[in-house]
């Protein structure tokens, strides 16, 4: 049964007659009479009792009227939901991390997001690096990549992937001879990091600080290429996950050494505000991030 017939029944019932329904449906009285006659012939029963002052639904017509209203309500609800989805699919997401090395690979991911979701704009907020949690709470960013799950009722987090940090050393460095690098081994090394403060560097915060060990010398080198050149010249060591160095051409003289007997592993979390959990564009970002980076 076509939707036009339900519209016809609804209009006649609510307007009282075909004559009163003509303007509402933008059709002539003759056209509506033809539609109703055609419908009743197809159904094999009367939909209305015709009376001079008012038309009344038959019992069968009443059921059709109720069914029509249910259909129209469902259609209206469906369009409202579609509008919500469309509205929720548009937005700007400001992203930051707790460490500059985490930005490795993010630009490629953002480019993919731009192709898949052109209505979602993703901005990297470098100024929020090292303090992303406080920036989320102050609404300066929307999502943070961190390695420690925050304890705050206003925030939610999802575990994305685990990686392992290795010490990158030159083959002539004394540490190349050990099975794994112990905390005490760092007392005599020149540690090359990406940036200060040292408390934001995973190898220090998670591995050295508990033993109250500080490397002999610490240098902040923002460019990974330059840091690798220094290690290749045996001027120090650096600590990085292997995936972060994958885009670079590494010298054959460099070796990866495990940090600690069981390795220095960390779990990465995406953190966002609880108030944003129902926003579709936020969920689209998170689901795609999980799919992309869980491969590491």
Automatic annotation (TrEMBL):
Per its UniProt entry, which superkingdom is the organism in? Answer: Bacteria
A GO MF term? DNA-binding transcription factor activity
Q: Where is the HTH lysR-type domain?
A: 1-58
Q: Which InterPro entries match?
A: LysR_HTH_N (IPR000847), LysR_subst-bd (IPR005119), WH-like_DNA-bd_sf (IPR036388), WH_DNA-bd_sf (IPR036390)
UniProt KW Transcription keyword: yes
Q: Does the keyword Protease apply?
A: no
Keyword entries, A-Z: DNA-binding, Transcription, Transcription regulation
Q: Tell me any Pfam family this protein matches.
A: HTH_1
Q: Name the family.
A: Belongs to the LysR transcriptional regulatory family.
Q: Write down the PANTHER family for this protein, in alphabetical order.
A: HTH-TYPE TRANSCRIPTIONAL REGULATOR, HTH-TYPE TRANSCRIPTIONAL REGULATOR METR
* Protein name from the UniProt record: LysR family transcriptional regulator
